[in-house]
Amino acid sequence: MKKKTTIYDIAKRLNITAATVSRALNGNSKISEATRKLVSETAKEMNYEQNKLAQALKSGKSYNVGVIVPRIDSNFFASVIRGIEEELYPHGYHVIICQTHDQKTLETENINSLLNAQVDGVLMSISNAQNGNDDSFNALIKKNVPLIFFDRKKDIKGISSVTIDDFKGAYDATKHLIDQGYKRIAHLSNDRSILIFKNRYLGYKQAILDSGLEFDESLVIETHSKVLEGRKTMKKLLEMKHRPDAVFSSSDFTALGAIQEIKESGLRIPEDISVVGFSNEPFTRFMELSITSVDQSPIEMGKLAAQVFLEEVNNDKRVKSEKQVVLTPELIIRKSSLRTPITDKV
Fold first, then answer.
1. What is the pLDDT, as a whole number, of residue 210?
2. What are phi and psi of 307, to 5 degrees?
3. What is the per-residue pLDDT for 27?
4. What's the pLDDT at 235?
5. In the beta sheet, which residues pair with residue 121?
6. Domain ranges of the chain
7. Average per-residue pLDDT in the chain?
8. CA angle 92-98-104, nearest 5°?
């Protein structure tokens, strides 16, 4: 097995001290530019690799950042991660991705693993767990590890977040349905102990009330963000004596399930029932019956979350400066909600 090159090997080659090699490789200004260049070129020629762990111990930075999401098999979270990586990579950071699958125990394990890995910060979208994970969040805070929430957040003093205006997104979606002439609008909600789903419910409800329509709580059903759950929930709504004539879903996946069930029942979309989703997943625009949805600007959300992290981690004074960044959602109107033909907006 070939022996790894050390700074002592480089020092011997150049007839200088190992300390000088070390300082040169670390960009010490006390070492002349010519020497730094010579050491760097020699190190490259000899296939020398710096000890990342030693560098981390010396600088106090690992240049690793943890990103925790409920799941990565959705375009939304994958796009947020892309935005985070695009913003952090130029600054020398690497991203460690963890999934919670909406389970509190996995969320706790992920946070503990990232702490043990000495990450420089954690960017996360919290799980759907009914009970909070305050102990794990406090562990990050006590160790002065920057914690940034995105999309799903928990209100903790001093902790920054990047979200969209879920209330407005839901309000605009519901108002659009009302403007199209729909009057009995159902809402496929999700766990409303999670702030984003609570706000989407409140936005939907306020749009109904502002329009002068009667708000009917029986048209609101809490379900999970899965296609099969959308089908099951829509089946219940279609069995009602006075079924809805439109559906606003807090998730595109649930909306897709609802559409499948509506079609199977023989009803037409949007003539008999209209459907609007939330998140603007890629499939919503590529289907033959394209789905109206609320776009959340996930790449921009990821970039902004990363920027907030960089501001915190580079703050030499370590003065906590809480930021609450709220993006404006955009309603993308397509065939599933319009009674008059349009050219889809991608």
1. 97
2. -65, -40
3. 75
4. 97
5. 65
6. 7-50, 62-164+298-327, 166-296+332-337
7. 90
8. 140
The rounded percent of the chain whose pLDDT value lies above 70 is: 92
Work out the end-to-end distance of the chain between its first and last CA atoms, rounded to an integer number of angstroms.
56
Closest C-alpha among 246, 227, 273 to residue 173: 246
Tell the CATH superfamily of the 62-164+298-327 domain.
Response regulator (3.40.50.2300)
Specify the amino acid at residue 131: N
User: Going by DSSP bridges, is the β-strand pair 330-332/292-295 parallel, antiparallel, or unpaired?
Assistant: antiparallel
Cβ atoms 67, 87 nearer than 8 A:
no
Q: What is the DSSP string of 277-309?
A: EEE--THHHHSSS--EEEE--HHHHHHHHHHHH
Look up the CATH number of domain 166-296+332-337.
3.40.50.2300
Distance CA 294, CA 281 (A): 9
What is the C-alpha separation between 275 and 53, in angstroms, rounded?
53
Q: Is the pLDDT of residue 86 over 60?
A: yes
Non-local (6+) Cβ contacts of 112 within 8 A are 136, 139
- Mean pLDDT on 157-163: 93
Are 109 and 79 spatial neighbours (Cβ–Cβ below 8 Å)? no
Instruction: Check for a shared fold between 62-164+298-327 and 166-296+332-337.
Output: yes
